[in-house]
Amino acid sequence: MDGPVPRSGRIIGLDVARGLALIGMLFAHTVPETDAETVFDGRSSILFAVIAGVSIGLMTGGRKGVAPDGRGRAARVVALRGLVLIIFGIALTAFDTPIAIILDTYGFLFLLAIPLLYVPRWVIAAVAAAAAVLGPVVVTAIGDAIDGATGRTAVVLDSVWLYFPERWLDGTYPAPVWVAYIAIGLLIARSGIRRPAVQFALVVVGGLAALAGYAVAAVLGPPVLAHDDSTAEVIASGGATVAVIGVLVWLSESTPERVRRVSARILWPISSAGSMPLTVYSAQIVVLWLYIENVPHQGLLGWQNLPLFFALAIPTLVVTGLWRLRFEQGPLEWLVSRVTTQRPWRTNPPRAPEVTPTR
């Protein structure tokens, strides 16, 4: 009988899910809008946001939560990571690409999530539900107030200090709605994501929520659209991402050793990319900026095209896979770790991309 496979600090299923989100966002960025893109557009960034919530939960105690004597350190680490993400988001926005940069919004959501680190699970669930139901109403009200008072264009152009707060509240990823995804991820971490029962619940509850959300929206109202930030999108797309996380974590944590070993080998490139999301995302934005600025693109091969997707996706998987064989962290992840937790540079011993069983 297969014995257990040792578990490191990382949950490989989360890395795989994060890698899929990165590749999905790259597809949405580089391929013209078609029916195929709708599979990735919106949902990939939602998956990324939910996993960000899970990561916050895991780094602050997981299922046990934050110990009373560790609350200050937990708040400091999350706040510092949020501020670093805001800085990176602002820097990438300065490249002025056609892509809606998401990092600064994630950083702002990290700051908003700090009070949730210390509350019971039912409070986190209540916040997620409130954001799903009331968030779209709040975003609409904020947008109307901005447009009615001074005009959106005037606000954005006249004051650099208002540009980011305005877009965090009423942009592509409005915080009043998107805090629901962070709260959902935090709730998953606080429930004990390594437990098979929790993984099963994620698949069932997430799958049923997705089916119900898409079905009800199709029957009673307009269909769920990417980035419409409606209650239906939170329930449907959010539920789908929860189910995906449940399946991938179950595959990496709760299946027999042989299945875990084979899946670890097969999914190694994607999990490697997902283990260094800040590095991969930032590099993709910079490369896209260089491409748009310097490579002629007209007609059928406009700056968005399928060959461009493969030209970026394949090297991303190859380079991160090779990097992961030697180093535990990506370069920007190492930098963030040093800034927020003062951890040293960590390397992996040369090894094959597989999980080794215990004796």
Structure description:
The protein is mainly α and 359 residues long. The protein has one domain.
Task: Count the domains.
Answer: 1
The overall strand count is 0
Mind summarizing the main beta sheet?
none
Radius of gyration: 20 Å
Task: Give the distance, in angstroms, between the N- and C-terminal Cα atoms.
Answer: 13 Å
- Overall geometry comes to globular
> Could you tell me the strand content as a percent range?
under 5%
Order of helices and strands: HHHHHHHHHHHHHHH
| pLDDT averaged residue by residue | 84
Helix percent reads: 55-70%
Low-pLDDT residue intervals, each spanning 5 or more residues:
1-8, 151-157, 349-359
Count the DSSP helices.
15
Describe the secondary-structure layout.
Blueprint: H1 12-30, H2 43-59, H3 71-93, H4 103-113, H5 121-149, H6 152-158, H7 160-170, H8 175-191, H9 196-220, H10 231-253, H11 257-266, H12 268-274, H13 277-294, H14 306-326, H15 331-341
Helix pairs in contact: 1-2, 1-10, 1-12, 1-13, 1-14, 2-8, 2-10, 3-4, 3-15, 4-8, 5-8, 5-10, 6-7, 8-10, 9-10, 12-14
Summary of the model, kept short:
By secondary structure, the protein is mostly helical.
